[in-house]
Design goal:
Blueprint lengths: L1 H6 L10 H11 L3 E10 L2 E10 L5 E10 L2 H17 L6
């Protein structure tokens, strides 16, 4: 992936918009891409992930995973659960 993007002179740093993710998906020849963000308010972390159809630019599905606690828990528990939900290994609660 990095080689293809390097060849095109494309850097992922600062690529946070859906439009940018779609552009990367087109460069890579992907049909779908996952994009997301992590926010923090008070003592709650929130991860918002989206499955994007590269051709149409439509958001096909989205997931939100909240964690009231430490960043360690978000990374070790919540992100693992989110990855399993997205990949279909487990269903949402």
């Amino acid at each position: 992936m990095e080689e293809v993007l390097d060849e095109q002179g494309f850097q992922l740093s600062g690529c946070t918009s859906d439009e940018c993710v779609i552009e990367v998906g087109k460069l890579l020849g992907a049909s779908h891409m996952i994009a997301g963000s992590i926010g923090y308010i008070g003592s709650t972390y929130s991860v918002n992930s989206r499955l994007i159809d590269v051709e149409s630019g439509k958001i096909l599905e989205s997931w939100i995973e909240d964690c009231k606690g430490k960043i360690d828990e978000l990374l070790s528990v919540n992100m693992r659960r989110l990855a399993q939900i997205i990949s279909g290994i487990t269903s949402e609660k």
